[in-house]
Amino acid sequence: MDDDLRDLLMAWGGGTLEESRCETLLARLRTDPAFRRECARQIHMLGMLKVVQAPSPRWLRIEEELRSEPAPAEVSAGKGSPVEGRVMEALRAGAMVNRVRRLWWVPALSLGLVLAAGLWWGMRYRPTPPPVPLHLRETLGVVVQADEVVWDRGSTHRPHQDDLLEPGWLRLRSGRLALALFNGVRLYVEGPAAVQLRSLSHVYCEQGRLSVHVPPQSEITDFTIASPGAAIRDLGTEFGFNVSPDGSAEVMVFRGSAEASVLAPNGTTLRSEVLPAHAPVRIVPERGAIEPAALPPGRFVQPPRVEARPLQLSPEYARAVRAAQPWSYWRFEDASAGRIPNEMEGGPALIIRGEVRCREVGSGNRAAFFDSRRARSHLQTESPWIVPPGDYAVEFLFSSEQYKNSALVGLLTPEDQHLALVELTARDPEHLVHKPGTLRYVQRVPPATFGGVNLFSTRVFFPYRWHHIVAQCRNGRLEMYIDGALAAAADADRVQSVGPCHVLLGMLRHRPDPADDVRSLIGYLDEVAIYPHALSPEAIAWHAALAGCSEEDPQGSRQARR
What we know:
Shape: flat
Number of strands: 30
Transmembrane segments: 103-123
CATH topology of the largest domain: Jelly Rolls
Largest sheet: 13 strands, mixed
InterPro entries: ConA-like_dom_sf, Ferrdict_sens_TM
Protein name: FecR domain-containing protein
Helix content: 10-25%
Oligomer: single chain
Number of domains: 3
CATH architecture of the largest domain: Sandwich
Distance between the termini: 60 Å
Keywords: Membrane, Transmembrane, Transmembrane helix
GO molecular function: sigma factor antagonist activity
Number of helices: 11
Mean pLDDT: 81
């Protein structure tokens, strides 16, 4: 800071200066306009700080001061600003200390009033803040279904269908909620109930009736639901859990097994035992007892039947895909003789393996349903694709029934190595850091079983809802589009001479390592197309709109594409 400016501000704040020094500063103020303006600016800043800290600003005096301020035209005409004038006056008086103490509030409070008015205006008319990005939020899952829910008056968190779930209490007076957590756990809650979502591995029930589905331990290693006097550690099962206001609990395992514990008031385990299927018990914390009980299944919440939402596919969708000239296109309208025919002349059919059926998912439209709970269900081309060097694109629609690590579409070499893979994520794999409940697109050049360039979406997918996906390599850049919008992109090596690749749907690979890392899909795939070239952003948006997966008007998208 300039020495003259520092001395002047010191005097303005209450310090003393020699008379000769005052004369020097006065002379510079008369002859140096830039110095005068900087002095005024610094004094305004000091005043602003004092106004902010003042317990009771004198608003009437401020208003008078504002009325006396000259217009900008007067300042530009050489009349100067009031602050500059007061500085000059103070120096001429020679008694700077007392003068400063009397006048500091005038410019300060003037500026303070302007700032206060601006703050009031900004608080009243500020735009709605953008949503917090997914990677900065501690989200646990989504609300899949909400039926006639009446929230408790004291409930501050009242999510609706398709809302993200964050840690906290859910207090229902009545109604039913179906929740899907990102680790694959599904909770069905019936009111009156008070349930606290603490983390992906821990839920606390103060009161209410719950039904819980937990994936096998190969997919989730730890999940516990507790009450004031009991805890159930799931071992990969489905069970019902009723908690009464007095703290007692009832448990019935429908499938698999679970470890039940009775807890002391301090939360330590008094006793535990493994419960087999169809052997209901009552847990009484007061006696530290786990007692067999003749409880009918109807006493527990039965999971509701949730179906995939209808696919609103425009009749123009298939024509648009064919016009884009894919190498292969499968619509799943027919599955005769264990094969799905190719819509493109000369293209290979898909061979059905396991439990894959074509089901109606909308008016006049069918899709492939994968039920990997019974077998390793998947589809594979009967002959491979000779992947050309350069660009390619993979386009499809999917609807998953749960959050589960699930392979959707892959380009797989005869050596069981991936050139490209699009999959759903649930829990965090040990070797990757990302939010669960998202989509992953990986390309490996040359094909391999690990490594490569990964893309992860910054938004989650929703169970039982249709999503339109395009994963492509375009001009040396990987791109992943979800519902017509670019979700992630990164530079990557262009595909060179790769050789033949099969298209594999609904399963990771044929020889997974470890053997149980199959990543089978439970849900639907439809309208799968493989292109020997990339698609334009306009074409992708148009296709998503025609599939009913975008808010954009299909006609508007068509005009944009043209």
